[in-house]
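User: Need the bound-state model for 3,4-dihydroxyphenylalanine:
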Amino acid sequence: MDMQEQLRKIQEEAAAQLATITDKAELDALKVKLMGKKGELTLIRRSMGQIPAEDRPKAGQMINEVVAILTEKMDTLAAKINMLEQEKKLASEAIDVTEPRKHTMIGMQHPISLVQDQMLSVFTSMGFDVVEGPEVEYDLYNFEMMNIPKNHPARDAQDTFYIEDNVVLRTHTSPVQARTMLNRKPPIRIVCPGRVYRADEVDATHSPVFHQMEGLVVGEDVTMADLKGTLDAFAQKLFGDDMTTRFRPSFFPFTEPSAEVDLTCVNCHGKGCRICKGTGWIEVLGAGMVNPKVLEMCGIDSKKYSGFAFGVGLERIAMLRYGITDMRALFEGDVRFLSQFRDD
Ligand code: DAH
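Assistant: Bound-state model below.
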């Protein structure tokens, strides 16, 4: 078979193969078969020495032509394969943004947070500022400035976690009163939400960590009537227009006079039921007129100014608001329980 015939055959076979090739590996294999070290065209070129010298230029030209034609065809196919592969890759990476998602859990607010937010919005709408204080507190603010000196029996009632001799985990939010009065001049109108700590055993109504909100108003001519009006408004906004409060005499070192404040029973609306033990009232918070001693210790002239204060447990309010009977449910973090509560 002469060289021309050989070249024609190689070209024909290569063209036929190119028509069927669909991937890069196959194309590379064909390239090697034709033009590799032992490729068909390479071997033909090498065999040029065996043909007469005068025929060589013609032969060389023929080989070059075939090489050029096949190279172009292979390049074209390589470009096409490349494009197809890119398209395939893009298609495989495509994201269908319309595809419905698998079931996702949407986070929600904890009932304590819900109640805290509701209360804050009631008090801020009445002109109160929101102030926070540290949970790790000096004995000085937690007790002394609240008129609870060392050896005062009221310290026993609040089983305290001590960090150091003079540093405690605050047992109530009342120390924020002292911190604020030392820093601000009357008129003062603040609420202070936050966590508080007591060495209590966990049961249906107790936890060593719980939440309170402190209220403090100091100004000229602030009276117990202002306290009653404020707490009535709070009760009505949170629990309904038919709510009212009842004050019973009590004792706190930091208020004089002091009161335990009852709320119309949220369950029976005052008729008397199991929850209020037939009285129509439930105890919800402590309050009173700021003890002049406390005002003076905080640098406020008790002849010119008077104030009222209250402290309310958020767990208690959340339990009443949402009909929760065991406080532990508020601390366990069971999503089946927590997902029932919505702001409304
Ligand atoms: N600090 C009190 C407690 O934790 C609650 C309290 C009662 C706060 C009366 C007050 C108040 O501001 O006037 O038991």
